[in-house]
Amino acid sequence: MDINQKESVYQQAKEWIYEAGEEILSKINGPLDIQTKSNPNDLVTAVDSSTEAYFASKIRNTYPSHRILSEEGYGDRLDTLEGTVWIIDPIDGTMNFIHQKRNFAISIGIYHDGVGEIGLIYDVIADVLYSAKRNEGAKKNGVPLPKLDKGVNLNEAILGLNHFWLCENRLVDEKVMQGLVKTVRGTRTYGSAALEFAYVAEGIMDGYLTMQLSPWDIAAGIVIVNEVGGITTNMEGEPINMLLKSSVLTCHPNIHDSISKDYFKKGKK
Ligand code: IPD
Ligand code: CA
Ligand code: CA
C-alpha cells in the first residue's frame, strides 16, 4: 500500500466504521436473533452478521483486489497474508452487546503483506474511536495517545485477564496464573479483547493476556498498541501468526519479559 492509498483507505475505513456503528445503534433494542456457535456461551446475532456483510460488500465494491479475513463467514478463505487484507470483527464482545448493550466494539485491522498498517477499534456506545497508522502514532477520537514511557513494575500493574485461566483449563496451569494475579496490583475483565487492547494503548491497563484468540480479535489492537510502544506476542514471546488462533500477551514493554518467561512459559500445558 503506498502512502496515498494508505491515507485514503484509512479515511474510508473510518467512514464505514461510523456508518456501521449507527446501524448497530438502530438495531440494538432488537429483536437480535441470537444463535449459538461452538458452545452455548459462544453467541452471534443477526447484527454481527449484517455488520460484517456491510463491510464485505463495501470493501469488495471499492477495493476489488483487497481480501477479507473475518469472523462471521463473509470473508475470504486465506492461506497467506499477501496483498492488502482487512481483518474484521464486526462486533467484538457479542455477549456484552446482548446482555449489557455496552462494552463492545467494531475492530478492523488492515494489513499489507502481513504488516499491520491501520488499526481501528470503535466503541460504539461510548462513541470512542481508537485509531492508528503504522509509524504515525495512535489516537483516541483524533487526539494523539501518549507513548507508554512511564516505568511500571509488575507489582503495580493492572492486567486484563479472563477468569477462565484461573480455573482448571487445558491450556495453562491455573496455579501459575493465580501466582500472577497475586503478584499484580489488580485485574480487570471487560469481555472485549479489542477494547482491552485499546485500554492497554491508552495506558489505563498495563497489559492483557489470554490463551486463545483469533486474528480478528487482535489485528487492530496490535497496530494501535505498537504505536504507543507496547509489545504484543504469543505466550512464548514470539510474533503472532495472523492466520491462526494464538495465545496473546499485549502490554507495557517493562513487564513483557517477566509475564512471558515467569508465568506464560512456566504455566503452558
Ligand atoms: C470474544 C471477546 C472476549 C474474548 C473471547 C472472544 P467475540 O470475541 O473478545 O473478550 O474473551 O475469546 O472470542 O466472540 O465477542 O467477537
Ligand atoms: Ca472477537
Ligand atoms: Ca465477534
Comma- or semicolon-separated keywords:
five-stranded mixed sheet; binds D-MYO-inositol-1-phosphate; seven-stranded mixed sheet; 36% helix; alpha+beta; 269 residues; single chain; binds calcium ion; 14 strands; 7 helices
Number of strands: 14
**Which spans of ≥5 residues are poorly predicted at pLDDT below 50?**
none
Bound molecules: D-MYO-inositol-1-phosphate, calcium ion
Within the largest sheet, what's the order of strands?
3-4-5-6-7-8-9
Overall mean pLDDT stands at 95
Question: How would you explain this protein's 3D organization?
Answer:
The termini are far apart. It is built from seven helices and 14 strands. The chain has helices spanning 3-27, 46-62, 94-99, 174-183, 193-202, 215-227, 253-267, and strands at residues 35-36, 43-44, 67-70, 84-92, 105-112, 115-123, 128-133, 138-140, 143-144, 158-161, 186-188, 207-213, 231-233, 246-251. 45% of the residues are buried. The protein is of the alpha+beta class and 269 residues long. It is globular and about 50 Å long. The strands form three sheets. The protein has a seven-stranded mixed β-sheet, sandwiched between helices. It has a five-stranded mixed β-sheet with strand order 11-10-12-14-13, sandwiched between helices. The structure holds D-MYO-inositol-1-phosphate and calcium ion (CA) (2 copies). One calcium ion binds at residues 89, 92, 193, 217. Residues 89, 92-94, 162, 191-193, 213, 217 line the site of D-MYO-inositol-1-phosphate.
Task: Produce a short descriptive summary.
The chain is α+β, with helices and mostly antiparallel strands and 269 residues long. The protein is built from seven helices and 14 strands. The strands form three sheets. Strands 3-4-5-6-7-8-9 form a seven-stranded mixed beta sheet, with helices on both faces. Strands 11-10-12-14-13 form a five-stranded mixed beta sheet, with helices on both faces. Strands 1-2 form a two-stranded antiparallel sheet.
